[in-house]
Design goal:
alpha/beta, three-stranded mixed beta sheet, 9 helices, about 300 residues
């Protein structure tokens, strides 16, 4: 068999500070929206796996929570999830922004990569927002901090990723097809729907509200004409519950309508979505709740 026809497969981690475009990049590579998008940091809480197929390769991308200084037990688990990914993958993609030099967060991530033998690519996102001549000094600065296998300027939002896919495939080992060709993610439909609800909360509310909410799908039942979904949004205080419900239930209705529309597109089915809001004080410090949400594994 010739080199070109050997099947390659492997796992690729997408890492970086919160809110640098990791989920946007994953969604573009998949051609579908499975990771939630927000202009607020720390949107991704769980490790989300997305599968991209090419004729002679299968790439399994892992969108990790943004690496940041943890403020709650939940955040500690998020950061540990991201860091643990380093040794489980074949390629690491570190995403940074083109508009600013490496900050303390970028330098901390580079420090964590110092003992990693896995090939690391530097992806300079939002390269379309700066002049080309400003990219070279930025590349030189990052090159002095770490030995990157590849440095690729790109725009995840515009879908301009240059030679990224080809460069990844070259670094993957020969291997099997881990997932069926038509499978997009390893996450169950319940998780995807809960994330879409959470995304609308991030989009429509402000201040501490998005960070103080958790979404649990209590029931998801397929019926002949539609899929019924019952979901609970947990908050930490009564005042947050009032804001989420809104005047005459207007905010909750808007969240539900937008989440339902996205879920119907992704799942290809008519959905009846019912939302409730409940108060669970300090849930971000509650190990049992974090396990239920999948933020921390059962054995941790």
């Amino acid at each position: 068999m010739t080199e070109e026809r050997k099947f390659r497969s492997g796992f690729i981690a997408i890492i970086g500070r919160p809110n640098v475009g990791k989920s946007t990049l994953l969604n573009f590579l998949l051609g579908e929206k499975i990771a939630i998008i927000s202009d607020k940091p720390q949107t991704t809480r769980n490790r989300i796996l997305g599968i991209v197929n090419r004729p002679a390769a299968q790439m399994v991308f892992i969108d990790t929570p943004g690496i940041h200084k943890p403020m709650h037990r939940m955040n500690e688990h998020m950061v540990n999830t991201a860091l643990a990914t380093y040794n489980e993958v074949d390629v690491i993609l570190m995403l940074v922004e083109a508009m600013e030099p490496p900050g303390a967060g970028d330098r901390f991530i580079i420090e964590t990569l110092s003992k990693v033998k896995t090939p690391v690519f530097l992806l300079i996102n939002k390269a379309d927002l700066v002049k080309k001549e400003s990219l070279l000094p930025l590349i030189q600065t990052y090159s002095a901090l770490c030995r990157f296998e590849e440095i690729i300027p790109l725009s995840a939002l515009r879908g301009d990723v240059g030679n990224l896919i080809d460069a990844i495939i070259k670094r993957l080992p020969e291997g099997p097809q881990y997932f069926p060709e038509d499978q997009l993610t390893d996450q169950p439909e319940r998780f995807i729907v809960s994330e879409l609800i959470r995304e609308k909360i991030f989009t429509l509310t402000k201040d501490e509200i998005p960070y103080s909410t958790a979404v649990v799908i209590e029931d998801m039942k397929e019926e002949p004409e539609l899929t019924r979904v019952d979901a609970v949004i947990y908050v930490e205080r009564e005042s947050q519950k009032g804001i989420l419900i809104g005047k005459n239930g207007a905010m909750l209705k808007r969240i539900g309508t937008l989440a339902r529309q996205d879920a119907e597109k992704l799942l290809g089915a008519k959905i009846f979505l019912q939302l409730w809001v409940k108060v669970k004080k300090d849930w971000r410090e509650d190990e049992r709740m974090l396990k239920e949400l999948g933020i921390v594994g059962e054995g941790k």
